[in-house]
Specification:
GO terms for molecular function: protein kinase activity. This is Ras association domain family member 2. InterPro entries: RA_dom (IPR000159), RASSF1-6 (IPR033614), RASSF2_RA (IPR033618), SARAH_dom (IPR011524), Ubiquitin-like_domsf (IPR029071). There is one protein chain. Strands 3, 4, 11, 12, 13 and 14 form a six-stranded mixed beta sheet that branches. The chain has a four-stranded antiparallel beta sheet with strand order 5-10-9-8, with no helix packed on it. It has a two-stranded antiparallel ribbon with strand order 1-2. Helices cover about 30% and strands about 20% of the residues. It is extended. The protein is α+β, with helices and mostly antiparallel strands. The longest helix has about 45 residues. About 25% of the residues have low confidence. The protein has three domains: about 140 residues, Ubiquitin-like (UB roll), CATH 3.10.20.90; about 110 residues, no CATH class; about 50 residues. A hairpin with a 5-residue loop joins strand 6 and strand 7.
Length: about 325
């Protein structure tokens, strides 16, 4: 992979630029860190513009549940043509109620007992390689109108399945309310390029998991282990921001968070976050003492200036009378 070339500025935000060579040096370090992994990035030039593309890891940092679409286009739940789990030709619901065929759920599913991140290839299509994106927000099969075939399970196994069947990789799906609660800090990824702005990346991520919430509700943040939180603006390019921050996610991560739930934390403030309260109180006491010293110093300074002005005024007022 060629990391050389002519020098020209590359935009990395509104009125913010970085030289091409400097960006390529960061990119080289990034790819060395992820050598042999699918998180390595590729770059090319189109019409004199440098374009970097690849997978970007994004951590879920949501405090409120998100809404999922109930209908997808790929895989649908359909009743088997003949099965002992359908009694007398009737469709039985989870509580034994009779369902009409038109009321069967129409959603994309992933078997709860299947291995995560593995999909059955469609007919005539080659199976996907493991280097592709690994969506973490997976769905589980609804228990409405469908019952699993197989040998009878013990009561303890049935209780365990009822407790855990809607949990895949830490994400919980409720088929009745179409609500997902992603586990805080769990990671997904999305394939983007360096020309995509923050709103475009947000929309791509929401469309990937068919999330109904508007992209306007969310924002991307770069969160450091020190506690610093930097919000990516609408004009920023998340992939370039990730490259400039460095590849190590133990130092900083890109988080998806609610706009109204998170406040930015500057580097200076982050230095004090992890201190214990007694230490912070001692800092405040020192600052108050320093403030008092500065106030007294200013008062002495202006008292001297006031005295000098008053003396000068007296000299001026006495001058005409002496003549």
């Amino acid at each position: 992979m060629d990391y050389g070339g002519c020098e020209y500025p590359v935009p990395c935000g509104k009125d913010k630029y970085i030289s091409k060579n400097e960006l390529l040096l960061h990119l080289k370090t990034y790819n060395i860190y992820y050598e042999g992994q699918n998180l390595q990035l590729r770059h090319r030039e189109e019409e004199g513009e440098l374009i970097v593309e690849g997978l970007l890891n994004i951590s879920w940092g949501l405090r409120r549940p998100i809404r999922l679409q109930m209908q997808d286009d790929n895989q649908r739940i359909r009743p088997p043509p003949s099965s002992s789990s359908w009694h007398s030709g009737c469709n039985l619901g989870a509580h034994g109620s009779v369902l009409k065929p038109s009321t069967l759920p129409d959603i994309q599913v992933t078997d709860a007992e299947a291995v995560p991140n593995r999909e059955a290839p469609r007919s005539g299509a080659a199976p996907k390689s493991q280097a592709e994106e690994t969506p973490q927000l997976m769905r589980t099969r609804s228990d409405v109108g469908v019952r699993h075939r197989g040998s009878a399970r013990t009561p303890s196994e049935q209780r365990r399945i009822r407790r855990h069947r809607f949990s895949i990789n830490g994400h919980f799906y409720n088929h009745k309310t179409s609500v997902f609660t992603p586990a805080y800090g769990s990671i997904t990824n999305v394939r983007i390029n360096s020309t995509m702005t923050t709103p475009q990346v947000l929309k791509l991520l929401l469309n990937k998991f068919k999330i109904e919430n508007s992209a306007e509700e969310f924002a991307l943040y770069i969160v450091h282990t020190s506690g610093e939180k930097q919000k990516l603006r609408g004009s920023d390019y998340p992939l370039i921001a990730r490259i400039l921050q460095g590849p190590c996610e133990q130092v900083s991560k890109v988080f998806l968070m609610e706009k109204d739930q998170v406040e930015e934390v500057t580097y200076d403030v982050a230095q004090y976050i992890k201190f214990e309260m007694p230490i912070l109180r001692s800092f405040i006491q020192k600052l108050e003492e320093e403030e008092d010293r500065e106030v007294k110093k200013l008062m002495r300074k202006y008292s001297i200036l006031r005295l000098m002005i008053e003396q000068r005024l007296e000299e001026i007022s006495e001058g005409p009378t002496a003549m």
